[in-house]
Amino acid sequence: MIRNSKKQELQDQVLTLSEQQQQKYFGHLIEDDSPTSIQKYTKQLLRMRYHVVDDQLKDNSWIDEDRFLDHYYTAFTQRPYLKQSTITLDEAVIRLFNRHLFVEKLAIPSLSFLLIDEIQDYTPAQCALLLTLFPRAAFTMVGDENQAIFNSAIPFSEIQKIFETNDRTVKRYDLRMSYRSSGEITKLFSKLVNDETLSIVPVRPAGESPRFICFENERKWLAAITPFMKNENHYTILTKSQTEAAFLEEYFKGQANQRSLSIYSIDIAKGREFDHVILYDISKEKFHTAQDKRILYTMLSRGMESIFVTYKKELSDFFQI
Q1: Which of the chain's ends, N or C, has fewer CB atoms near its CB within 10 Å?
Q2: Is 10 helix (H, G, I), strand (E, B) or coil?
Q3: 239 - beta bridge partners?
Q4: Domain locations in the chain?
Q5: Which helix (H) or strand (E) holds 95?
Q6: Beta partners for 214?
Q7: DSSP string of 238-253?
Q8: What is the pTM of this model?
Q9: pLDDT tens-digit profile of 129-185?
Q10: Residue 26 and residue 41: Cα distance in Å, rounded?
Q11: Distance of CA 224 to the CA centre of its chain
C-alpha cells in the first residue's frame, strides 16, 4: 500500500477529487498539495478503498477452508466429506495443516527436544502435524495404551509407522514398574492389560484387598458403602460418565458425609491419583467393549490405598479372568 501510494497515476486521482469527495474521504479539503502531503492522502484513500480486502487477508477469511478440506478428504478417503455442525478435532488439525502449508507458515519456535505426555490420546493427524511443525526436534513420547479412553486413541504401532514414514527412528521402552498403587490394586488392574506378555510389577506392599459390592439401587448402594466411610479417610468416587458424576453430586447434596467425598468422571480424573477410591456401577451392562476395558483399567489405576468396586446386579465380565 505504501508503494502504491507513490504511483503518479494514483496521486493524480487524489488531485482530481471533487471537494465533496475530499470531505467524504478525508473529512476536510486538501490544502497542502506538496508531494509528501499528496502521498499521505493517497495512502489514506487506498486504505479506505481496500480495507475490507486488507482485513480478509489478515484473518485469512478469503480462503474457502471447507472446500480445501473437502478436496483433500475426498482424495484421501475416496468418500465425500460431510460437514458437521461442529468440527472434529482432526478437522481442526487439518485446517491448521492447510494454513501452515499453503497459506502462511505458523510462527513456531525451532525446538531441539519435544516431550509429549499421554501420547495414546493423540490422533494420527496430530502426530503428522507435530512432525511437520518440528522437523528437527528429537521426540520423547510417554503414554499407556491401556489408558486410551477417548475416541482419539491411537495404537503405538501406528505412531511408529507415522514416524518411520517421515524417516524418523523410534525406540520403544516398556516401563513395567507400578509406583502409585498398592500391590493388590496393581494386581487387579494388571489383569486388564491388553498385551498379555507385559507384566506390571508392583513396588509398594500388597495393602488391602479390593472389595466388590453389589447393589440394586442408589439407596442400597449408599447403605453398602457408608460403613466403610465412617472414618477420617477422604473417599473419591469415580464414574464412567459425566452424567453419572452429576447425578451423584446431586444425590449427595445435604448428606452428612458429603464433605469426605469427591466425585469425578474418569475423563476428569485421568492422570490423577487418590488414596481411597469407590468405582460406581462397574456392571456387565455398562462395561463390555474394548474401550470400556481401557476405561476400567484407568479407573482402577487411580487408586493408591484401597479400592471399592460397586456394581448393579451383575459384575462386568472383565473381572472373570
Answers
A1: C
A2: helix
A3: 265
A4: 4-59, 108-173, 180-319
A5: helix 89-98
A6: 311
A7: EESSHHHHHHHHHHTT
A8: 0.74
A9: 999 999 999 999 999 999 999 887 788 999 999 999 999 999 999 888 898 999 999
A10: 8
A11: 37
